[in-house]
Design a protein that fits this description.
The protein is mainly α. It has a single domain, classed as Tetracycline Repressor, domain 2. The longest helix has 26 residues. It is globular, with a radius of gyration of 18 Å. The N and C termini lie far apart (50 Å).
Length: 173
């Protein structure tokens, strides 16, 4: 069994799933214990960064580039999708937003950007203290969240291009 070529991908897939579950759990515990939205965002992001930075292998396996087959890539995409789904659900409850494609895209952008920033910080590309990184991420998350909320409230009254006129398919109904 040890020499089976399927053992390593299965191990990495299980590890990726576990790492995502742990990151979500650490973030949600901190997020849930916080008060107003800004405090909740700060607590959640701080917990996320601390969790990943306390053992940088977590961030590297979950978000970093690594050679993997299709099975591992699928598990990794599913794990990151769960992180994005968690952010989307929390944003909807915190900001009283209606779930939809725009919130999904915003959540994906926030998770992807934050995870890349953490990787870059761990690799030494950002020469700053962890608290400063967390503060910067919080500021950006709040800006994007507030902008997304404002966009969603004004979106229903703004004119939209049809997919045929814009030259691309729209995910919005």
């Amino acid at each position: 069994m040890r020499d089976s070529p399927n053992v390593v991908p299965l191990f990495i897939a299980a590890l990726t799933t576990r790492l995502a579950d742990e990151a979500i759990a650490a973030t949600l515990v901190a997020f849930s214990s916080a008060g107003p939205p800004e405090e909740a965002v700060r607590a959640g992001i701080s917990a996320f960064v601390v969790h990943l930075a306390d053992d940088s292998r977590r961030a590297r396996v979950l978000f970093g580039a690594m050679p993997a087959g299709d099975a591992v890539a699928g598990h990794r995409a599913a794990a990151i999708g769960r992180l994005i789904g968690t952010v989307e659900a929390r944003a909807c409850s915190l900001l009283t937003l209606t779930p939809g494609p725009f919130v999904e895209v915003s959540a994906a952008m926030l998770v992807g950007g934050a995870s890349q920033a953490v990787l870059d910080w761990l690799d030494g590309r950002f020469k700053t203290f962890r608290e400063v990184l967390v503060g910067d991420l919080v500021a950006l998350w709040l800006l994007i969240s507030d902008g997304a909320a404002a966009r969603l409230t004004s979106f229903s009254s703004s004119p939209r291009l049809s997919p045929a006129r814009s030259g691309r398919a729209s995910r919005r109904p």
